[in-house]
Design brief:
Elements (H helix, E strand, L loop, with lengths): L4 H14 L3 E6 L2 E6 L3 E2 L2 E2 L2 E2 L28 E3 L4 E4 L15 E2 L4 E7 L2 E6 L4 E6 L5 E3 L4 E5 L1
Antiparallel strand pairs: 1-2, 2-5, 3-4, 6-13, 7-9, 7-12, 8-11, 9-10, 11-13
């Protein structure tokens, strides 16, 4: 397998910029996983683990943000358009934008995702009732994670 050191460096830089500990990218059957690793004499070690996605010896990250019954193709699913940190309210002492059971209208702000020090409001794609909130306030999230369900 050819190691793409430029891609690894870009992924390591993205880890620093987003505050994540690990990132994984797959193309076909090739995969690169970069994680921050352990601290050694005050220096962070970045490790790359290229492998096949079906390799049973490589622990796979579990998507704990959504139950198996809710997928991104669910008509009411609100999915993350980016990697970042999800916040349910505009500031710690403020009420949540859209708690479970609340009525929302299309275009209402549901949550904020902080990515690279920019606060990105996530809007409702339809009107309805928030039936599920599938993230914790301040939780790191990945692109495509199901964050809420609007019925």
């Amino acid at each position: 397998m050819k190691i793409d050191s430029k891609a690894i460096k870009q992924l390591a830089k993205l880890l620093d910029e987003t505050g994540l500990n690990e990132i994984e990218v797959a193309e076909g059957e090739q995969m690169i996983r970069v994680n921050k690793g352990a601290m050694i004499a005050g220096a962070t070690v970045a490790a790359a683990a290229p492998s096949m996605p079906s390799d049973p010896t490589v622990p796979q990250a579990a998507n704990t943000s959504a139950p198996d019954t809710v997928t991104g193709d669910h008509p009411g699913a609100v999915t993350s358009p980016m990697v970042g940190t999800a916040y349910a309210s505009p500031e710690p002492s403020a009420p949540n934008f859209a708690p479970k059971g609340s009525q929302v209208s299309e275009g209402d702000t549901l949550l904020i995702i902080e990515a690279m020090k920019v606060m990105n409001p996530i809007k409702a794609h339809k009107s309805g009732t928030v039936t599920q909130v599938l993230f914790e306030n301040g939780q790191p999230i990945e692109f495509g994670d199901v964050l809420m369900v609007i019925e």
